[in-house]
Write a structure and sequence with these properties.
The protein has about 400 residues and is of the alpha+beta class. It is built from ten helices and 14 strands. The chain has a domain at about 25-95 and about 205-275. Helix content is about 25%, strand content about 25%. Helix 1 (about 45-55) packs across helix 2.
Length: about 400
């Protein structure tokens, strides 16, 4: 899976500068809450909305292409990008190709923990081998785990069933050698919908071999030992306090030869994630809801047909979409305020999220369970931390497997 350069924003200006900025101040990756000098009543400017879109739409592109994609003058772009990371609207992570680290099975686990058990549950999940993501809500806990094979994954996940700590526990285990995860925490489409900007042709970013980009030459080949320490350092970089008060957003500039090889050979990919709870409103619209849905497709329908319908009929682009057989996990961002029509829906206004849940999902799915969270109540105890997935002595030693099937993503 390769993230290619994405097309420029319509009307983009020619870039007049390049480079990665370094500045003194708080960490861009873990900014302090409430640092913003602006009042919460002040919304995003058009330049800020475009920079957020450019970062989400072009995570692996060179900085010059991000600048061009934003359609902004160089000075405006760089100042605005700095603000986006300072305020915590965006955060960068390096994400490994699951095949190359021998963990081509991905499990999603979702449930409702009891309030007095949430902390213990989070600690247990976070300390489990293969964990990379843990989110919590009121009440909600979502975990993402990477393992070497479906039997290993199911054995680990089966230990999470504990009625004394969590209820309504569901899990999906995806074998990436058989299929792919169509959408893996890709917020570009959701933000484009709210901001009235185009969704790039590269959306969605998924996991596994498929339509996100051309198959990479390293697919199925293990990460070489000579690159393992370099990979671990990059994966840990977002979580290490910067030295000397200097901080920088992540990128591909300033890398040494081995670090550069990790990207050029497809072992690592740069991703940009959105924190909707910190985003101000934009033109009266605010991304203020997070919705997770689980259920089963009716009548043996292809789950990817639901993803296509959401995008083309309703103008909704999920940030998360995974399935195992007929079972589906769907993540969407809701919003306040009226949003403009999207090209995906032929220019028609996007359907309200409530009507989609009521009308479309109830017709296409059964045994539906819906988690609704205010964006401000979602916490990220484990925030896309992938360095533990690099096996250490005494840890699980999964076999590296080669992908056998390429599954397409609906346009």
């Amino acid at each position: 899976m390769v993230v290619g350069a994405r097309g420029p924003f319509p009307g983009a200006l020619s870039p007049s500068g390049t480079g990665t900025e370094v500045y003194k101040g708080p960490s861009l990756l873990n900014p302090p809450v409430g640092r913003s000098p602006r009042s919460p009543m002040h919304g995003l400017t058009e330049a800020e909305a475009r920079v957020v879109w450019s970062a989400l739409a072009q995570p692996g592109a060179p900085e010059r292409e991000r600048l061009q994609g934003s359609g902004l003058p160089s000075s405006t772009y760089h100042a605005t990008r700095r603000r986006a990371y300072e305020e915590g609207w965006l955060r960068d992570r390096y994400v490994p190709d699951p095949f190359t680290i021998g963990r081509s099975t991905v499990s999603f686990v979702l449930g409702r923990p009891y309030a007095d058990e949430t902390a213990a549950l989070v600690q247990r999940w976070a300390s489990t081998d293969g964990n990379a993501v843990v989110w919590t809500g009121t009440p909600m806990v979502l975990g993402v785990f990477f393992h070497g094979s479906p039997p290993i994954a199911r054995r680990v996940i089966s230990r999470f069933a504990d009625d004394a700590r969590v209820r309504d526990l569901v899990s999906l285990t995806v074998d990436l050698t058989e299929t792919r995860i169509p959408v893996y925490f890709d917020f570009e489409g959701a933000w484009a919908r709210v901001a009235g900007l185009p969704t790039s042709s590269e959306y969605p970013f998924g996991l596994g071999i498929g339509a996100t980009g051309p198959s990479v030459p390293t697919a199925g080949r293990p990460l070489p030992d000579r690159l393992r320490n370099s990979a671990r350092e990059l994966l840990d970089r977002p979580f290490v306090p910067p030295e000397g008060g200097l901080a920088r957003w992540l990128g591909q500039g300033g890398l040494d030869r081995r670090q550069r090889e990790l990207f050029d050979s497809g072992y690592l990919h740069l991703r940009t994630f959105l924190d909707a709870s910190r985003l101000p409103e934009y033109r009266g619209r605010r991304m203020d809801q997070l919705v997770l849905v689980t259920g089963e497709m009716r009548e043996r329908r292809d789950p990817t047909s639901l993803l296509a319908e959401l995008r083309t009929v309703h103008g909704i682009s999920p940030f998360l979409f995974a399935y195992e057989g007929s079972r589906v996990l769907l993540g969407m961002m809701g919003h306040s305020g009226v949003v403009p029509g999207s090209p995906e829906s032929g220019g028609a206004p996007s359907a309200p999220l409530g009507s989609v849940l009521r009308d479309t999902l109830s017709k296409r799915m059964q045994r539906v369970d819906v988690y609704r969270e205010e964006s401000g109540t979602v916490r990220f105890p484990v925030d896309h931390r992938y360095s533990p997935l690099l096996r250490t002595p005494g840890a699980e030693a999964p076999a590296v497997v080669r992908p056998r099937l390429r599954s397409a993503v609906p346009a």
